[in-house]
Amino acid sequence: MLGAKLRHLVNNICPHYHTKELPGEEVARGRCKAAKSAKVTNQPATQVGTAVSTQNRVQGPKRKLLNLCTYKLHALGDYILQILWFGTTDSYSTQTSELQHRRVKHFYARTNKNGANIQIARLQRREELLQRKQAQVHKHLLSKKTQAKVQAALAQDELELLAYTPPITYPTLATSH
Questions:
Q1: What distance in Å separates the CA atoms of residue 35 and residue 21, rounded to the nearest whole number?
Q2: Model pTM score
Q3: How far apart are CA 173 and CA 177, in angstroms?
Q4: Cβ neighbour number for residue 33 with a 10 Å cutoff
Q5: Could you tell me which residues are beta bridge partners of residue 63?
Q6: Which residues, other chains included, contact 93 with Cβ-Cβ below 8 Å and sequence gap of 6+?
Q7: Residue 149: C-alpha distances to residues 145, 146, 153, 157, 174 (Å)
């Protein structure tokens, strides 16, 4: 379906539009042609370049057509499935890999540069071990704090026992906070 629409575009719509090279592309083509002819004649490109650039000005910009024989257009039909499977590419970020690279460079500075890969691996393992230990200590401290808070809350609840009230009556408020 997509291929048929693109062929219809090239065959029926594009011939009505006269598209040509941009001025920068035209100048670049002239420079390339001058460099090629300079290689053939073994002359500096500046001497040959003036003659070639005047020839290009006479010829003018080349006509440009839509080329359907490119991989970009060939793969266009697969984009939908790829987006459904992997998501859009605007959600990808190189930040994590850049930060990891910076981390490895930091480790490299701490090695003696002989067998740096092994030394970097040791430093990374040591850092991970220290982070794990720090997380365990933090978790242990938090559990002690939360236990103390829970016990304090239970003690507070025991102090303010309310009398029984039937479910139909409105709730009563505690006298102290």
A1: 20
A2: 0.39
A3: 10
A4: 16
A5: 20
A6: none
A7: 6, 5, 6, 12, 21
